[in-house]
Amino acid sequence: MHQRVDQDRPGRLYPVVLAVRQGKLLAFWCPHCRRRHYHGVHMSTCGCPCPLHDGQQGSCRCPLGSGDGHRSAHCTDDDRPGSPFRKGGYIVVETSIAELDGFVDFCLDMPPSPDRDLLIRLLREKRAALIRAGGQP
Predict the structure, then answer these.
(1) Each residue of 24-60: pLDDT tens digit?
(2) What is the pTM of this model?
(3) What is residue 89's predicted lDDT score, i.e. its pLDDT?
(4) In a domain, 25, yes or no
(5) What is the residue-averaged pLDDT of the chain?
(6) Could you tell me the CA-to-CA distances from 73 to 62, 83, 89, 91 in Å, in that order?
(7) Range(s) of the domain holding residue 59
(8) Do residues 126 and 100 lie in contact, with contact meaning Cβ atoms separated by under 8 Å?
(9) Number of domains in the chain
(10) pLDDT digits over 114-131, tens only?
(11) pLDDT-based confidence at 4, cuts 50/70/90?
(12) Measured between alpha carbons, how far is residue 91 from residues 29, 67, 69 in Å?
């Protein structure tokens, strides 16, 4: 699992999870609980002009990545005891199936190598997890 430092919490690494947008929520498949977790696209400080900030219904039209950032984990001991996400949360990074497909296509144009094949396999695993989270291919 990739890790990244949160800009608001320097000196500490957090796991990174890839999420897809579903309306005004970000969803990802939790590898520990084996279920979907949801977080709002918008953080209170994002400052974007989306009408959802005014309580209107519909889908968010803000740019991809508007809701990226640190979140507290939704894992519970009822789901699966001992999730490492519960300790400090994680960094949510919004992506799309199309974006991952573009990375795979880029890799397929590279000369064959064990590293390229590993990267393609990892990207395809992330793609499958995003589909389990509710992303549309």
Answers:
(1) 788 988 888 888 889 888 765 556 666 555 556 666 6
(2) 0.72
(3) 87
(4) yes
(5) 79
(6) 24, 9, 5, 10
(7) 3-96
(8) yes
(9) 1
(10) 888 988 898 898 889 888
(11) low
(12) 14, 10, 5
62: its two tokens: 């803000």
Q: With contact defined as beta carbons under 8 Å apart, do 117 and 42 qualify?
A: no
User: Which structure tokens are listed for 119?
Assistant: 């990267």
Domain assignment present for 65: yes
Task: Extract the tokens encoding 12.
Answer: 């500490």
Tell me, what amino acid is at 68?
D
